[in-house]
Design goal:
Length: 494
């Protein structure tokens, strides 16, 4: 009898331990996943029954919750939806969330760790729970100027304050209407989502910070130049042989300068001339002389290889140092590939935000600030939540190098390949790019820079896809520079 009781006791104990372990695992490790599961009706009802905090631009709501007469009590609505969709993202019934809506969700529903006492107080006092207000750094005038300047082109514009990292404009086209995804009709939401997700133009993709990324073209020459100056072995006057055509080592592939011919005439070309006229051949030679490690190290200092939370997570830009051989084994890139990557071709890939960060670092005396969309977060009683002050991201170059590069970039706009970004009475620093994408494929067109050069108020990156509708006939200066000029003027004329 005692033996039977012992067996039963052991079984009961094991069942208790199993129950305790499983409930602990669910509570500790699966709670977040279960709350986020679109099938969790209780979580959905709870999240919608609370008044989700608004997202503001210059004090005006671009996303807010409005009362409705259904089981969810509140519905998300978006003002100027296409203009702000890449920033706000969406908050849906059953299809998840994106953008600031997703990244700042805990604050918007009032359940961030720093809001614990406010949440408990609302429960104890019987008040309806209410989320915090998220104030964005976006300047509505600059955002609208960027949207209008990009026009019907596919691409992106990012403008930021180089001294603080605050993002003043972030436009991605084509865009979409997040109101279509905010309906409480599940079938309508799913249909709208599928339509957007299957659109070959990919409107749901925020081109400013994510996606397949872009070949940077000649905007990468800023990084190559920075690496040269930081090495201490080169000055802007350092020269390289100046042929009109160069055969890449170990290949039969020839590279040329963008305009054809030599770089400014003469038997040699300086780094300063190569940057001002955006010449490929001297930059390829400079990249070979610097080596893969030096270029990769400089790119990483600017932020390549790193993701940044703005608060959306960005896709890391890349400067590949290895490739795969015929057997699929990782091997170092060869000299020919290094030379291509030195002027932004090959396998370099970047986000517009990354190139705006490069220009911001140069504009800010060599100190690169962490980019952010969040200016402040306020509880319903207007008390601040969290720390969203400006933070240093890195110091990729010295103040001396930054000053030298500023002068070179001013020359690029005043007397060089970025001339269409000129603004009367203002020294604009800039660099264009015209990235090739394969035989017969339209170019990707770039401008990045800042203004005024002597006291920078804004840094910018503009990218235009599909050759601006002109295939391989357009250049960064003909399409991207005028767009950048309009956005820079919007900041400077405020």
């Amino acid at each position: 009898m005692n033996k039977s009781l012992k067996r039963v006791s052991v079984v009961v104990l094991l069942m208790f331990v199993a129950l305790f372990a499983s409930s602990t695992y669910i509570t500790a490790f699966q709670a977040d996943a279960l709350r986020a599961d679109s099938r969790n009706q209780r979580a959905l009802l709870a999240s919608y029954s609370a008044q989700r905090g608004p997202i503001l631009v210059a004090g005006q709501a671009v996303a807010e919750s409005t009362p409705v007469d259904d089981q969810y009590k509140f519905q998300r609505t978006y003002a100027q939806p296409d203009l702000y969709a890449p920033v706000t993202g969406y908050y849906t019934l059953g299809q998840g969330s994106r953008g600031v809506e997703d990244a700042m969700n805990d604050y918007l529903v009032g359940k961030a760790p720093s809001q614990f006492f406010e949440y408990v107080n609302s429960l104890l006092t019987g008040q309806d729970p209410e989320g915090a207000t998220v104030n964005l750094t976006i300047d509505p005038t600059v955002q609208q100027a960027a949207w209008d300047a990009l026009g019907n082109q596919s691409g992106s514009v990012v403008a930021m304050d180089p001294k603080t990292g605050k993002i003043l404009a972030m436009v991605s086209k084509p865009s979409y209407d997040p109101n279509q995804l905010a309906s409480h009709d599940r079938d309508a939401v799913l249909s709208a989502y599928k339509t957007l997700a299957n659109d070959p133009a990919d409107p749901l993709q925020n081109r400013a910070i994510q996606g397949d990324l872009y070949a940077p073209g000649s905007t990468f020459k800023l990084i190559t130049t920075a690496a040269a100056l930081e090495s201490g072995d080169y000055t802007p006057e350092s020269t390289f042989p100046n042929p009109s055509t160069l055969t890449l080592p170990g290949t039969s592939t020839n590279i040329n300068n963008a305009e054809g011919g030599t770089c400014g005439g003469g038997e040699t070309a300086s780094i300063a001339t190569a940057l001002r006229l955006s010449c490929n051949i001297p930059m390829a030679q400079l990249g070979e002389a610097l080596g893969t490690d030096a270029l990769n190290e400089q790119a990483e200092k600017f932020g390549f290889g790193k993701t940044v939370d703005i608060p959306q997570k960005t896709t890391a830009s890349v400067f590949p140092t290895t490739t795969k051989d015929r057997d699929g084994k990782e091997v170092p890139i060869d000299k020919a590939t290094l030379m291509l990557q030195s002027f932004g071709q090959g396998s370099d890939r970047v986000t517009p935000l990354q190139m705006a960060m490069v220009s911001s670092a140069i504009a800010n005396g060599g100190t690169e600030m962490t980019p952010t969309l969040i200016d402040s977060v306020l509880n319903p009683d207007l008390s601040p939540v969290g720390d969203f002050s400006s933070k240093v991201f890195s110091k990729p170059i010295s103040s001396s190098t930054a000053s030298t590069m500023t002068g070179l970039m001013v020359d690029d706009v005043a007397n060089g390949a970025a001339s269409n970004a000129r603004i009367s009475g203002v020294d604009v620093a800039g660099k264009t790019g015209t990235a090739e994408n394969g035989t017969g494929e339209p170019y990707t067109l770039w401008f990045t820079g800042f203004a005024p050069a002597n006291d920078p108020q804004v840094a910018i990156a503009v990218v235009v896809e599909n050759g601006g509708g002109q295939g391989q006939s357009a250049f960064g200066n003909s399409v991207a520079s005028p767009i950048a000029k309009k956005v820079l003027e919007a900041v400077l004329n405020k």
